[in-house]
Each structure stands twice: as C-alpha cells, then as structure tokens.
UniProtKB/TrEMBL annotation:
<comment type="similarity">
    <text>Belongs to the bacterial ribosomal protein bS6 family.</text>
</comment>
<dbReference type="InterPro" id="IPR020814">
    <property type="entry name" value="Ribosomal_S6_plastid/chlpt"/>
</dbReference>
<dbReference type="GO" id="GO:0005840">
    <property type="term" value="C:ribosome"/>
</dbReference>
<dbReference type="InterPro" id="IPR000529">
    <property type="entry name" value="Ribosomal_bS6"/>
</dbReference>
<comment type="function">
    <text>Binds together with bS18 to 16S ribosomal RNA.</text>
</comment>
<keyword id="KW-0694">RNA-binding</keyword>
<dbReference type="InterPro" id="IPR014717">
    <property type="entry name" value="Transl_elong_EF1B/ribsomal_bS6"/>
</dbReference>
<dbReference type="InterPro" id="IPR035980">
    <property type="entry name" value="Ribosomal_bS6_sf"/>
</dbReference>
<keyword id="KW-0689">Ribosomal protein</keyword>
<dbReference type="Pfam" id="PF01250">
    <property type="entry name" value="Ribosomal_S6"/>
</dbReference>
<keyword id="KW-0687">Ribonucleoprotein</keyword>
<protein>
    <recommendedName>
        <fullName>Small ribosomal subunit protein bS6</fullName>
    </recommendedName>
</protein>
<keyword id="KW-0699">rRNA-binding</keyword>
Length: 121
C-alpha cells in the first residue's frame, strides 16, 4: 500500500480551555498513530479570528498536522472529526512533491532567513 503525504488543519471551538484543547488534539494524534500514520510535523496556531462566523462563533483554535499514511487513514480521521462536537471545521489535503518540499523549507526556516536578508539589504 502506497503512503502519501497529507496535511490536515482543524479548528476547535473557542469555548475550550487549554487542557481540553490538548486532550482533543491528542485524540486525533492517537487516531493517526493507531492507523499506522507517521506524523511528520505539527503546529498549534492558537486562537484566531475566523473569516466568517461559524456556529455563531467568530474565533477558533487552529491546529495543523502533517503526516504520511495510506489513504484509508484519512477516512478514519475525518470520521473522528465529524463525531467530535468540539471541531468547528477541518480540511485534509494530499501534498504533492512540491508542497512537501515547500513544507520542509518552511520548517527549516529558509523563508524567515530570506526576509531578514531583505530587511538588511
């Protein structure tokens, strides 16, 4: 079975405290691990304003997980998202080779260095 690179972003309700948010994220991490997914990178973007109100909420906790897994894992993960009332929205995408390379460069801080050099010059 071929492994593909995926990126999933989900928004949790702003009504959660820090502990509840971490527990929810851990639950999704566990779903990935149980289905033999390899988590490559994770980012907690924190509380952000939504572009438009969703379920009468204007903010939400954003979290990104980049992972490598067989396609069947995505179905299992998204089913878990749908069953959890704390999830406001989610999006999972397949990454092509260019997106994977871009993410690696971003993680290594190449883009931050380029901005610093622009400011100096």
């Amino acid at each position: 079975m071929e492994l593909k690179n995926y990126e999933t972003v989900f928004i949790l309700t702003p009504l959660l405290n820090e502990v509840q948010m971490q527990e929810t994220v851990e639950k999704f991490r566990q779903v990935l691990k149980e289905n033999s997914a390899d988590i490559i990178h994770e980012e907690n973007w924190g509380l952000r304003k939504l572009a438009y109100p969703i379920q009468k909420k204007s903010t939400g906790f954003y979290h990104l997980i980049e992972f490598k897994a067989p396609g069947s894992v995505v179905d299992q993960l998204e089913l878990t998202y749908r069953r959890d009332e704390k999830v406001v929205r989610f999006l999972t995408t397949v990454l092509d080779k260019h997106a994977v390379a871009y993410n690696e460069r971003r993680r290594n801080g190449e883009f931050k260095q380029a901005k610093k050099e622009e400011v100096k010059g």
